[in-house]
């Protein structure tokens, strides 16, 4: 072991488990790629102000959880705690919203950083795959995104997840509700911190997990009862479209998310096998975010699914992904001459698209066959001096143990035929 360890709240993705993470990222991205979303990649850090304004000055993410730093040049930066503000910033900067028709549909995959108290499912470095549809107000777009996330989870074989759905209203109805909620909350017996929260971000109080607080919230007014006619109609259509696609969801009038930019549609994917960190993904509409960061009015909607928690959900359900072995063929040379010949053959197999590895390090037959076994390869190619004298190699089926000579010039074709 080295003197160093991975920083607290982080972990390394190492083979073979890392293959599951790759497969999860690919499974989440696949429905997006099929639905017109283009790939976007933004820097791992941004101007602090982008998140302060975008995610919200009063959110835990901004006040407590950001990794901030001042560069030698004096810039105030933050490691990105989430992707939406960055993606919108990048789209605006590149004028994507002017370049073609709206919405601009983008997907991304990467690392995010939050200085949270580590526990199972909650890390300081984690990974998300996300999607943002920028510049259109259309219930069908909200519904598309919810259905695509649902499809991604289903394609992975997950069953025990639920979709929680809510509407957070808009600039017309939310302020009225906010005032009513504040009035209700001010009358409660709350600690000083929570009282402060009532004044700056009362909706977040609804999300308080502490029993003493929860018990007092039973009669809290609900946004549902304050939605304006436009928001009501919009939400009804989102629900209708999702239902029509056969996707189940639960109305959750108390669902508030930890980011301030949401308007109207908000949703969370929760998995019941994960304990307290049960949200595997979440998202919603953020019609005002563009203006908050200095852009034009661009109503938008998106989500991000957590890769780490999705992997935990797979484990909780006992789902084994059908991952292909890393290599199909493993070459075992016996002797110096065979090493050179097989090294060339390995190259030919790879060029032909057959994933192949080689027994490096001058191993003897026994150790080399052990390595072939461990690699998970379907076939081993073994050759010694006597084989080469006859211009053949031994092709060994690693499952049955059967072995037969194949002429050197026909190996690539023989292997491809068998693997097909
Ligand atoms: P979020 O709910 O903050 O939303 O994060 C989305 C997902 O990222 C969570 O459901 C969870 O799976 C994962 N996640 C968040 N924090 C952690 C952590 N500390 N450790 C492990 N996993 C974590 C957003 O980030 C929004 N940007 C989503 C969005 C996109 N809204 C609109 N567009």
From TrEMBL:
EC number: 6.1.1.21
GO molecular function: ATP binding; histidine-tRNA ligase activity
One GO process term, biological-process aspect: histidyl-tRNA aminoacylation
Keyword Mitochondrion recorded: no
Cross-referenced Pfam families: HGTP_anticodon (PF03129), tRNA-synt_His (PF13393)
CDD domains registered for this protein in UniProt: HisRS-like_core, HisRS_anticodon
Main subcellular location of this protein, as a coarse class: cytoplasm
Record's GO cellular component terms: cytoplasm
Catalytic activity: tRNA(His) + L-histidine + ATP = L-histidyl-tRNA(His) + AMP + diphosphate + H(+)
Localization in the cell: Cytoplasm
Highest taxon, organism lineage: Bacteria
Keyword Disulfide bond tagged: no
InterPro entries xref list: aa-tRNA-synth_II, aa-tRNA-synth_II/BPL/LPL, Anticodon-bd, Anticodon-bd_dom_sf, His-tRNA-ligase, HisRS-like_core, HisRS/HisZ, HisRS_anticodon
Residues binding L-histidine: 82-84, 114, 128, 132, 257, 261-262
Keywords tagged on the record: Aminoacyl-tRNA synthetase, ATP-binding, Cytoplasm, Ligase, Nucleotide-binding, Protein biosynthesis
Residue ranges of every copy of the Aminoacyl-transfer RNA synthetases class-II family profile domain listed in the record: 1-324
Annotated family: Belongs to the class-II aminoacyl-tRNA synthetase family.
Subunit structure: Homodimer.
HAMAP family per record: His_tRNA_synth
Record-given protein name: Histidine--tRNA ligase
Native organism: Streptomyces violaceusniger
Organism taxonomic ancestry: Bacteria, Bacillati, Actinomycetota, Actinomycetes, Kitasatosporales
């Amino acid at each position: 072991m080295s003197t160093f360890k991975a920083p607290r709240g982080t972990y390394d993705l190492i083979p073979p488990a890392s293959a599951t993470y790759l497969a999860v990222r690919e499974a989440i991205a696949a429905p997006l790629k099929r639905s017109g979303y283009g790939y976007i990649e933004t820097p791992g850090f941004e101007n602090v102000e982008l998140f302060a304004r975008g995610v919200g000055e009063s959110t835990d993410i901004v006040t407590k959880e950001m990794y901030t730093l001042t560069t030698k040049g004096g810039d105030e930066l933050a490691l990105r705690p989430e992707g939406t503000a960055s993606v919108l910033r990048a789209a605006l900067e590149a004028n994507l919203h002017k370049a073609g028709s709206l919405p601009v549909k983008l997907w991304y995959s990467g690392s995010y950083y939050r200085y949270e108290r580590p526990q199972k499912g909650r890390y300081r470095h984690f990974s998300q795959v996300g999607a943002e549809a920028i510049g259109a107000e259309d219930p069908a777009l909200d519904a598309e995104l919810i259905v695509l996330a649902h499809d991604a989870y289903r394609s992975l074989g997950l069953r025990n997840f639920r979709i929680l759905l809510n509407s957070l209203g808009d600039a017309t109805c939310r302020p009225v509700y906010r005032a009513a909620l504040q009035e209700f909350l001010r009358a409660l017996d709350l600690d000083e911190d929570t009282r402060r929260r009532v004044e700056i971000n009362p909706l977040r109080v609804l999300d308080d997990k502490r029993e003493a607080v929860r018990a007092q919230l039973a009669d809290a007014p609900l946004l549902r009862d304050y939605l304006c006619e436009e928001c009501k109609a919009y939400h009804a259509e989102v629900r209708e479209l999702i239902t029509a696609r056969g996707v189940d969801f639960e109305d959750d009038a108390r669902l508030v998310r930890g980011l301030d930019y949401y308007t109207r549609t908000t949703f969370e994917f929760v998995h019941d096998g994960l304990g307290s960190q049960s949200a595997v993904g979440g998202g919603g509409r953020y019609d005002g975010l563009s203006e908050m960061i200095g852009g034009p009015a661009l109503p938008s909607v998106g989500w991000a699914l957590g890769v780490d928690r999705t992997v935990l959900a797979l484990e909780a359900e006992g789902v084994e992904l059908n991952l292909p072995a890393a290599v199909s063929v493993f070459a075992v040379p016996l002797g110096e001459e065979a090493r050179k010949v097989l090294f060339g053959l390995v190259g030919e197999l790879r060029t032909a698209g057959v994933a192949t590895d080689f027994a490096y390090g001058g191993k003897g037959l026994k150790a080399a066959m052990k390595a072939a076994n461990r690699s998970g390869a379907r076939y081993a190619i073994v050759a010694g001096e006597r084989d080469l004298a006859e211009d053949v190699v031994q092709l060994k089926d690693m499952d049955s143990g059967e072995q037969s000579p194949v002429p050197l010039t026909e190996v690539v074709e023989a292997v491809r035929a068998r693997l097909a």
